[in-house]
Specification:
The protein is an alpha+beta fold and 592 residues long. The strands form three sheets. A 15-stranded antiparallel beta sheet has the order 14-15-16-17-18-19-20-21-22-23-24-25-26-27-28, with no helix packed on it. It has a 13-stranded antiparallel beta sheet with strand order 1-2-3-4-5-6-7-8-9-10-11-12-13, with no helix packed on it. Strands 29-30-31-32 form a four-stranded antiparallel beta sheet, with no helix packed on it. The chain contains nine helices and 32 strands. The protein has two domains: 9-378, Shell (RHS repeat-associated core); 392-587, no CATH class. The two termini are 35 Å apart.
């Protein structure tokens, strides 16, 4: 393919649909996988190799797990999980060089109440900065205390608007939750709910948008004009000043930037990990690469050099306010900061950490909550903006259960197939997103008129991993049925359609279709065919009926039911593990 600036980008894939290599400009990447198609290595032709290790035994608790990756500079990043699969320790170390060591404490509903930044002097480790957090009964952040910063308190009305400010009186809002004044700032909006102006003691910022409500211009008080351009997929591909007097252009691999090219001739290249907003390193021109130190949210906490020594460090409050730095564009939750405007680019719209809100309404409506401007339901310590698609309970655990209970398949087959099924939501080349409509249609069953042709094509791959990819699309045809709205499908309904309990009858049909697909595959291979047992049907019925939230509106606004369950099940730091554990227990299958 060729990007909007004429740069050729090419990819190669293996028979299982795994990316083998990628090249752009003078750079190339190669990928290696383990026997169940998980990425083991990503190698860049000049920076080196990042290695991944999964499901390691935790030496401090044999019943919990660890995941590890080793960066090209030798820094080992280890995520230690507790028995509920919550991150309890996240460390970055090379030899005696500790660039990051974060410890987490949780409350009864799995919210982070404390994050300790440990330090490692010559003697024993000891606490450095300590962040403490409190919440209200709607799981909204109400206070943040920090060892080295003044404490902050937050209060909200019933729909999530802040009712307090550091100074300047109480914030004011219009009837549709548009922030009109806050902390000495005043705002106006256009008819589509986009912030049109911001006035402060130093002057007024004026904002302009295109017909898709994307920010295209910001006129600053000193008459500087910041301009943005987007490609056909809605990705920001250029940021310029004063009509192009200076500019930065961005090349992408899917949803993530791989290269910045500036008008002054400077080029910055980036290495991306396994998920979205997962920066591994950056390399400016001929200089040596620097490597990212991140916390549980993917927030950039520092950069290290080739020796693993920290060369930059960054701090933030809970909503992402920080002193801007020229060391990297990537900061809070791994997103891109614009120093001139004070905003952060969150792809579909821009976020303003100074007020803890987006500057535009949510383009997917109520999927983000009944307040169209709120950032992650005012729980920024525990969440990032989620994507709405089928969840790991179906794509991995139900698939594993069905394959393992089928007499025509082995334990190894079950691991291959289930990991390939869930891997479609995790592979950088196929993970779903608002800005990748083609990926959504070809991998996540967004367009109903294409189901037959896509399933036919996917069904040609007669390997266990190929079967897993086929099952992913097949399963999504059930959860996404009736929600044809490219490029986001059922996004307008949030995660509700992905909850099997939202329509147990439809979920049962999905499970039956999955079983039929296993029979078809086995019969073509000359193995056997089998009918589901009564016991299996009973377990599946209990599985699909296990509730997550009270109703569809409760799911959209992240309401909590009597069991305390909420949100999506994918992601260690964005969900309540109790619901997934209950559903896994119904099936009687081991943890992934």
């Amino acid at each position: 393919v060729t990007d909007v600036f004429g740069q050729a980008i090419s990819y190669l894939y293996d028979e299982n649909g795994n990316r083998q290599s990628a090249s752009y400009g003078g750079s190339s990447l190669t990928y290696q996988y383990d026997f169940i198609n998980r990425v083991k290595q990503i190698t860049h032709n000049s920076v080196g190799t990042t290695t991944y290790d999964y499901d390691l035994v935790n030496p401090s608790d044999s019943l919990s797990r660890m995941h590890r990756r080793t960066l090209p500079n030798g820094v080992v990043v280890t995520a230690e999980l507790d028995r509920l699969d919550r991150v309890k320790k996240l460390s970055h170390v090379k030899g005696t060089n500790w660039s990051g060591d974060y410890r987490y404490t949780y409350n009864a509903v799995d919210q982070i109440t404390q994050m300790e930044e440990m330090i490692h002097p010559a003697g024993p480790e000891e606490p450095g900065a300590i962040h403490s957090f409190q919440y209200d009964n709607l799981q909204r952040l109400t206070s943040e205390a920090h060892t080295n910063q003044p404490p902050q308190a937050f209060s909200y009305d019933q729909v999530g608007n802040r009712t307090n400010a550091p100074s300047g009186g109480a914030p004011t809002y219009s009837a549709n939750n548009r922030l009109m004044s806050y902390n000495g700032l005043t705002f106006t909006y256009d008819l589509n709910g986009n912030r049109e102006s911001q006035t402060s003691a130093v002057g007024t910022n004026v904002y302009s948008y295109d017909n898709e409500n994307r920010l295209i211009n910001v006129l600053l008080p000193d008459s500087t004009m910041i301009q943005y351009k987007y490609d056909a997929l809605g990705r920001r591909v250029e940021r310029s000043r004063n009509g192009g007097a200076s500019w930065e252009r961005f090349s992408y691999d899917g949803a993530d930037v791989v290269k910045d090219v500036r008008s002054d001739g400077v080029t910055i290249e980036y290495g991306n990990g396994l998920g979205i907003d997962d920066k591994l390193w950056q390399k400016e021109g001929a200089s040596a690469a620097k490597f990212f130190t991140v916390d549980h949210l993917g927030t950039t906490r520092g950069l290290t050099d080739a020796n693993g020594a920290a060369v930059n460090s960054f701090s933030y409050d809970a909503f992402g306010n920080s002193v801007s730095s020229s060391a990297t564009r990537y900061g809070f939750t791994g997103r891109e900061a614009d120093a001139e405007t004070g905003l952060m680019y969150y792809r579909a719209r821009f976020y303003d950490p100074a007020v803890g809100r987006f500057v535009s309404e949510d383009p997917i409506g109520l999927a983000g909550g009944i307040n169209l401007y709120a950032y992650v339901s005012n729980s920024p310590v525990n969440r990032v903006d989620p994507l709405g698609l089928h969840e790991i309970d179906v794509h991995y655990y139900l698939t594993y259960f069905l394959v393992r209970r089928h007499p025509c398949f082995s334990e190894t087959d079950a691991l291959f197939i289930a990991n390939a099924d869930q891997g479609v939501d995790e592979n950088p080349a196929t993970l779903p997103s608002f800005w990748a409509p083609e990926t959504n249609m070809t991998n996540h069953a967004i367009h109903p008129f294409l189901h037959e042709s896509y399933l036919g094509a996917l069904g040609q791959n007669n390997t266990p991993a190929g079967l897993g990819v086929y099952l992913h699309y097949l399963q999504d045809t059930f959860s996404h049925a009736g929600y044809w709205f490219p490029p986001i499908g059922h996004g307008l309904m949030g995660h509700y359609p992905d909850k099997t309990s939202s329509d147990p009858k439809k979920a049962l049909r999905m499970a039956e279709a999955t079983w039929d697909a296993l029979n078809d595959y086995a019969s073509k291979k000359g193995f056997c065919k089998e009918r589901m047992s009564v016991d299996m049907w009973g377990r599946i019925l209990s599985f699909v009926s296990a509730k997550s939230t009270t109703n569809w509106l409760g799911d959209i606004v992240n309401a909590i039911d009597s069991t305390g369950d909420k949100g999506i099940m994918d992601g260690l730091t964005r969900n309540n593990p109790k619901h997934l554990e209950r559903k896994r227990g119904i099936l009687g299958v081991p943890k992934r």
